[in-house]
Write a structure and sequence with these properties.
With 444 residues, this protein is an alpha/beta fold. Helices cover 27% and strands 24% of the residues.
């Protein structure tokens, strides 16, 4: 398990209901980031998580009351074992049932709970001493009598109204969602998602005048432009996509608005940075599909993948997926640093993203293409490095069949393996720092 991998993540939302879930064997079971007023968190269970319940520079308000306790459960204690060994020994990190990162402290999100073995979190931690639930237990955790009435069972919540989702869409379409600042662009991200939803689900338009109006107003927005571009790429129309990308539209000068329904489009210049990243990603994706990625593409792909997804939206996740495909490396991107960007720190610029919990960055990688190959291969660096790199190739029998020094002055280098027998091979690249990178490839 990797600490930064989250099962349930709530950020800067209001009146969120997180109920009746079971998260197990992941880094963080339930994480609440920044201010989430009106949150309802009950009926959930946490099993073998490195951190079961996490407050990340956040608050959710008081959960439960003296008359009604929560029925969240920490199903397995930190001492539970697997095969005779404490389960957490496999992770290398001692687990916490609750964990508070930064401020405010646990008092901002009190928990009214029953005092049973699985309902009382006894193993608590925090990044700032004295901020956690254990230290503040007299005020932050209220242990009630076991006969105290719990929250309603999960069964009753299964009958929640089907219009709840519609209400959320209409709030987005009317720009009626409150964020922490006027410059917060999650309104744009929400409307982009709403647009993609209405064009895929006619029921949203047919059953809501607000959504019908929103659909009409957004026809000329960049939501429609980007969606059309995505559709071309999905259908493999690279020439059409290239033509569309050559003349991207500017942000509308004024937000379109419907007086009758309150629907309005928030596609303005404040979202230019988000749109620019989408276009950069699509350009990289097109080069990836035709095998012409450059060192600059590699660096830009990594840069987008390192961004804060709360600030730049789903394009960050798409870049991370492509990064995995290109470099065959699954990175646990750590987004805890997003708090600084959302608060205006670092001047909104990239701050960097770590892999795992040790603070190391996702560093140099090499792309080999094409694979399989007819014998002519191109190696491309993620991070430009002009120092010589030693290349060694072995066949499936472990026999060395090639050795040479390569220069990546242009960001890439070519190797000619014409005449090499068909089969599986492995290349090892060793740089000036004596760091090695291995890639398997097939010669046809």
């Amino acid at each position: 398990m990797i600490d930064s991998v989250k099962a349930c993540y709530v950020a800067n939302a209001s009146r969120t209901s997180v109920t009746c879930n079971n998260e197990m064997r992941t880094g963080r079971g339930y994480e609440f980031f920044h201010n989430n007023p009106g949150t309802d968190w009950h009926g959930n269970s946490m099993t073998m998580n490195e951190k079961g319940f996490v407050m990340n520079y956040g608050l959710i308000g008081t959960q439960g009351s003296m008359a009604s306790s929560l029925n969240n459960q920490w199903q397995v204690s930190s001492s539970a074992s697997m095969g005779g060994t404490a389960w957490w020994a496999y992770t290398g990190t001692y687990p916490y049932q609750t964990h508070v990162i930064g401020s405010p402290n646990a008092l901002s999100s009190k928990l009214y709970i029953n005092g049973g073995t699985i309902t009382y979190p006894s193993n608590n931690g925090s990044s700032i001493p004295s901020n956690d639930y254990t230290f503040l237990s007299l005020g932050a955790i209220k242990a009630l009598n076991l006969t105290a009435a719990p929250y309603p069972s999960c069964i009753s919540f299964a009958a929640a109204t089907a219009m709840a989702g519609m209400d959320a869409f209409e709030n987005i379409a009317t720009n009626n969602v409150a964020y922490e600042s006027a410059t917060d662009q999650r309104g744009w991200m929400g409307q982009y998602t709403a647009w993609q939803s209405v064009i895929c689900d006619s029921d949203l338009v047919d059953s809501s005048a607000v959504m019908g109006s929103f659909c009409n107003l957004a026809q000329g927005s960049r939501y429609a432009y980007l969606t059309g571009l995505e559709n071309m790429l999905a259908l493999g129309d690279m020439n059409g996509a290239a033509q569309v990308m050559a003349t991207p539209p500017s942000a509308p000068q004024n937000n379109a608005y419907d007086n009758n329904t309150g629907a309005q489009i928030t596609d303005n210049q404040g979202a230019d940075n988000i749109v620019d990243r989408y276009l950069a990603f699509y350009s990289i994706y097109m080069n990836y599909t035709n095998g012409s990625m450059t060192a600059q593409d590699n660096a830009e792909l990594k840069a987008i993948a390192m961004e804060c997804p709360l600030k730049y939206g789903s394009v960050v996740y798409r870049a991370r997926s492509l990064y995995t495909a290109v470099f065959d490396q699954l990175v646990a991107w750590n987004d805890d640093y997003c708090s600084d960007q959302l608060n205006g720190g670092n001047n909104g610029q990239r701050k960097g993203n770590t892999n795992g919990t040790d603070g190391s960055t996702a560093g140099q990688q090499y792309l080999l293409s094409p694979n399989p190959t007819d014998g002519n291969i191109t190696l491309t660096q993620l991070v430009p490095d002009t120092k010589p790199v030693v290349a060694e190739i072995w066949n499936a029998l472990g026999q060395s069949v090639y050795q040479s020094s390569l220069d990546f002055i242009t960001g890439s280098a070519q190797i000619n393996l014409n005449g090499m027998a068909s089969g599986l091979y492995m290349i090892r690249l060793t740089d000036a720092k004596n760091t090695s990178y291995k890639i398997k490839f097939v010669v046809r």
